[in-house]
Amino acid sequence: MGPRIGLIAGSGDFPLFVLNEAKAQGLWCAVLSVQVGAPDALESQADAWGRASAGRPAEALAFFRSHGVRDLVFAGKIDPVSVFSPGGLDAAGRKLIESLPDKRPAALIRKVYELIEAQGFRVMDPGPYLKPFLCAEGDLTPAGPSPEARDDIAFGWPIARAVADLDIGQTLVVKDKMVVAAEGWEGTDEAIRRGGRLAGPGTVVLKVGRTVQEPGVDLPAVGLGTVHALVEAGASALCIEAVRVPFFEREEAVALAESRGLALTARRG
Is 222 exposed, middle or buried (0-12, 13-18, 19+ CB in 10 A)? Predict the structure, then answer.
């Protein structure tokens, strides 16, 4: 049995890919699902499994303590509504919410980390489990973005970075050098669909990290589901930040994008 880690799993496939990579590295993994929508396969592949509300940190930490785990990794989306719902909070959760300077995602997550570390746990950088999913700079589909789409990427890039740095969201939808939509609470895929509804076919989507991206704090990621949303929205291109935004199920996603005339590319900040 290898070293032990705990995975705090939100929704989406992100936690499953982190779990698979951690186990491939020989780690023993206790997984706690804190969000509806976590992959079903997590339970069968975890060495220990549990569920708790995202607003009940005392319960979550008791689970990991019972399994002798001190090193924790966050992965997946956690819906802010589930965290701020008064009925879902324990005493530690209520105290944490009351202490927030504001309720932006990064502020909330930093407070959660402080609480966790005050209880003798360590929050680990998920980076070592994400390296296989990071993209080098360049086009990911055989046909890269059109000249018009590249112009939109150049236009939108500094705006996307500014929006991310303001902790508003890490996805920006543009068309014809106009901002169509910025990601809010709804997440990447819904922001893409909203942009498509507002502007019609031909939108360009950018996904970036913050200029100073703290390890484990609301890490941006894309995957096959993202490409399905892009196809549904009639987008023409997706540009992600190279080496910083993980791309899960890349082979299947690239094949789907290529079959639908959607360009995928990665750019350095």
Answer: buried
116 and 176: one domain? no
Tokens of 120: 């003798």
181 and 117, same structural domain?
A: no
Q: Are residues 41 and 125 in the same domain?
A: yes
The per-residue DSSP string of 115-178 comes to HHHHTT-EEPPSHHHHGGG---SEESSSS---HHHHHHHHHHHHHHHHHHHTTS-SEEEEETTE
Q: What is the greatest pairwise CA distance in the chain?
A: 56
Task: Please report which residue ranges of the chain form alpha helices under DSSP H.
Answer: 14-24, 41-45, 57-66, 80-84, 91-98, 105-118, 127-130, 147-165, 188-199, 224-233, 250-259
User: What does pTM read for this prediction?
Assistant: 0.85
Identify whether residues 116 and 147 lie together within a single domain. Answer: no
Claim to verify: residue 170 and residue 49 sit in the same structural domain: no
Instruction: Check whether 240 has a pLDDT greater than 90.
Output: yes
Q: Are residues 107 and 181 in the same domain?
A: no
Interstrand relation of 122-123 and 71-75 (parallel, antiparallel or unpaired)? parallel
4-9 sheet: strands from edge to edge: 48-51, 28-33, 4-9, 71-75, 122-123
Q: How far is CA 139 from CA 38, 106, 135, 146, 239, in A?
A: 30, 30, 10, 11, 9
- Tell me how long the chain is: 269
Domain boundary among 83, 98, 130: 130
pLDDT tens for residues 20-62? 999 999 999 999 998 776 777 888 999 999 988 777 788 889 9
Residue range 87-105, pLDDT digits in tens? 566 677 677 677 777 777 7
